[in-house]
Specification:
The complex is a heterodimer. Chain A is α+β, with helices and mostly antiparallel strands. Helices cover 56% and strands 18% of the residues of chain A. Chain A folds into 2 domains: 195 residues, no CATH class; 178 residues, no CATH class. In chain A, strands 2-3-8-5-7-6 form a 6-stranded mixed beta barrel, surrounded by 4 helices. The radius of gyration of chain A is 33 Å and the shape is elongated. The two termini of chain A are 31 Å apart. Chain B is of the alpha/beta class. Chain B has one domain: 3-Layer(aba) Sandwich (Rossmann fold). A 6-stranded mixed beta sheet of chain B has the order 6-7-8-3-9-10. A 4-stranded antiparallel beta sheet of chain B has the order 2-1-4-5, covered by helices on one side. In chain B, helix 3 packs parallel to helix 5. Chain B is globular, with a radius of gyration of 17 Å. Chain B starts with a strand and ends in a 12-residue tail after the last strand. Classes of the chains: A alpha+beta, B alpha/beta. The interface between A and B is medium-sized, with 27 and 31 residues.
Chain lengths: 412, 239
């Protein structure tokens, strides 16, 4: 192997310019791949972090996933039913405190009760449908980042203001309200309630900031016309990524529909999957293209070295050993190119992380999020090395199949 | 009893194509160990083709080649390469040294490919060979720093590196001046005198006359075999 390496090294070191071009091609491919991977994963992780911070990891509501069996179906072999009367069951989760204490005993996180209802906010001629979530400010800090998302006021101000509400900054802007203003809330049952804006929050997610308001649980119950009702449990887990698994277990235990943040945002996450596929394809194409320079160099060397190949074969070197020389040459070009590509990739990531862009959703200027991962370097390097070896294999195979006598006769 | 180093039995080499062409046509030949055989003949007579067959560089269309009694017609390409590496040494008309390597590295090449010696042993043998051929001072020079005769002597040293039993040389003096020709031929003569078998193709009748046996080929067939005394200069015109 030392002999093959020596021959390979003399070949590549004798062609400095060509070798450097090949190495530069590999370095560019690896560097830009690492940058793209860091940028894509960084923005994705940043978005998911915002999503996970804004939403409860699991929401348990008072609905069942499947329609309950009708009594008539249980009693008779009913094949058709019509005009089934609503029996007027009281909404909400039964015995919420017992359910919560049971969940707290095993879930890796915390749980808090809340009251969710829809309402219309009426102010200055604007009528906007919103989701009103009644919370317990003392417990809220255990399940959401709402406290840290407050831009004006505090969570505790809900208790101080009469029928206090906390409004999303984007919604407040739409309505033209400020902290301390009074707005009219109209519930589904026709309940009308004058509420005071006790604070403003900004989650970073437009659809939340434009449609979500928070109040005390009692205020939300009043809007529903159901005192004491708890129709939602919100869970926050130590590991947000385990939400799907825990949600299934919670649903199996309680019988209530438990929706993980992944399920609630399945459409968004599937978009990420498509995006990941596109990005991987582009990165693979970049690495493949960068190996063309290596292919070109090895093709040139094998063409120039036809006579040497013939002599080595005539001396008794085996065909695969001669072939290996050219694969080693491409690996030398690949390895050095990859090392420079790693440095280039890091510098590009660092450079991009210093660039700030205006986010129209949040109205802030934020730096580009870059995710640094050793795996990006390993994968980009590994794929590039494979591409280089593959790029060398075919010209090397063709060249080493040459019959030595044909070359020796041609040279004579 | 004389030991046969190289034997060809009804050897045929045919190039198939639209028009088939027979390069070697039914040659029977036995070369003894330590014998110096010169193959002569006009251009296109098939002498180089015969040499490539004898050195296992090419495979016969028909017939058998036995090297040290071992039949080779059924060997795979890898096995033929192994035989070339260990039992045959090649010297070509043009030196065919690797241009990026020094003289010593070129001589070490077959030994390194065989991998039977340590690096120290290989270097020692390489330097000894170069020294014995008068190239001790040129061990670290590249081919482009050597004269034609010196390059050819390096090529001979490379052919001798793995102590092959047979040296095949295809017009080794064809591209050399008179002084270098004399030097190279003397070396080949010495090699044969030391017990290695040498088969050389040459156009030069004076040089062929210095071989133990001269085989004259015309149209792929042996036309004449001339036995000569070892080292005896016989000036006989080749018809």
């Amino acid at each position: 192997m030392k002999l093959l390496f020596n021959i390979a090294w003399t070949h590549v070191s004798a062609r400095v310019r060509q070798t450097l071009v090949g190495m530069a091609g590999v370095a560019m491919g690896v560097g830009f791949t690492i940058m793209m991977a860091g940028l894509m994963q960084g923005s994705q992780i940043d978005f998911l972090r915002q999503l996970v911070d804004t939403m409860p990891h699991i929401t348990v509501d008072d609905e069942r996933r499947s329609v309950p069996t009708q009594p008539a179906e249980q009693e008779y072999a009913a094949v058709q039913m019509a005009d089934i009367a609503n029996v007027g069951k009281r909404p909400g989760i039964k015995y919420p405190e017992s359910v919560m204490s049971s969940l707290r005993s095993w879930i890796p996180g915390d749980v808090t009760p809340s009251v969710a209802t829809s309402a219309i906010i009426d102010h200055g001629g604007a009528r906007i449908g919103i989701t009103l979530t009644g919370i317990d400010p003392r417990r809220e800090v255990q399940v959401s980042k709402l406290a840290s998302q407050m831009r004006e006021g505090k969570l505790d101000d809900l208790s101080r203001a009469p029928n206090g509400i906390i409004v999303g900054e984007a919604l407040a802007e739409k309505l033209g309200v400020k902290t301390g203003n009074t707005v009219l809330l109209v519930g589904g049952q026709g309940t009308r309630l004058n509420s005071t804006v006790a604070g403003l929050f900004r989650s970073g997610l437009k659809r939340v900031d434009e449609s979500q308001i928070y109040s005390l649980a009692g205020t939300a119950q009043l809007m529903m016309g159901q005192s004491g009702v708890v129709n939602q449990l919100r869970l926050r887990l130590n590991d947000p990524m385990s939400a799907q698994k825990v949600a299934a277990q919670v649903e199996a235990q309680t019988g209530y529909r438990s929706v993980s943040w992944q399920e609630a945002n399945a459409d968004l996450l599937s978009t990420f999957t498509v995006r990941d596929f596109i990005v991987l394809t582009v990165m693979g194409a970049m690495l493949l293209t960068s190996s063309f320079a290596t292919y070109n160099i090895i093709s040139t060397i094998t063409h120039e070295k036809r006579q040497d190949i013939a002599i080595m074969k005539s001396l008794g070197m085996r065909e695969y050993a001669v072939r290996r020389i050219f694969i080693i040459e491409s690996i030398i070009i690949g390895v050095v190119g990859i090392l420079f590509g790693w440095i280039l990739g890091y510098l590009l990531c660092y450079g991009w992380s210093k660039i700030t862009i205006f986010n129209p959703l949040t109205g802030t200027t934020v730096p580009l999020q870059i995710y640094y991962s050793a795996m990006h370097y390993v994968i980009a390097g590994g794929i590039s090395l494979l591409c280089c070896a593959g790029a060398a294999y075919f010209p090397a195979r063709k060249a080493t199949r040459v019959h030595p006598v044909d070359i020796i006769r041609g040279a004579s | 009893m004389t030991e046969v180093a190289l034997q060809a039995v009804e050897l045929v080499r045919r190039i198939e194509g639209v028009v088939s062409h027979t390069l070697v046509n039914g040659i029977d030949l036995a070369v003894n160990k330590g014998e110096f055989v010169a193959i002569t003949g006009p251009s296109g007579s098939g002498k180089s083709s015969l040499l490539y067959l004898l050195g296992l560089l090419d495979a016969p269309s028909e017939g058998e080649i036995m090297i040290c009694g071992q039949p080779t017609s059924k060997l795979s390409e890898t096995e033929r390469a192994d035989v070339r590496l260990t039992k045959c040494g090649f010297v070509f008309q043009f030196h065919f040294l690797l241009p990026e390597f020094t003289s010593l590295d070129n001589v070490l090449l077959p030994m390194r490919a065989a991998g039977r010696m340590t690096e120290g042993e290989m270097r020692e043998r390489g330097l000894t060979l170069l020294g014995s051929l008068g190239l001790g001072e040129h061990a670290n020079k590249r081919p482009n720093q050597l004269s034609g005769g010196q390059r050819q002597r390096v090529a001979i040293a490379r052919a001798l590196a793995n102590r092959p039993e047979i040296i095949v040389a295809d017009e080794p003096t064809g591209a050399l001046d008179t002084a270098s020709t004399e030097q190279v031929f003397s070396i080949l003569r010495d090699i044969a005198d030391q017990g290695q078998t040498v088969v050389v193709v040459t156009h030069d009748p004076a040089l062929a006359a210095r071989a133990d046996r001269r085989i004259h080929i015309v149209d792929g067939k042996i036309q004449e075999i001339t036995e000569q005394g070892s080292g005896e200069l016989v000036c006989e015109a080749v018809s």
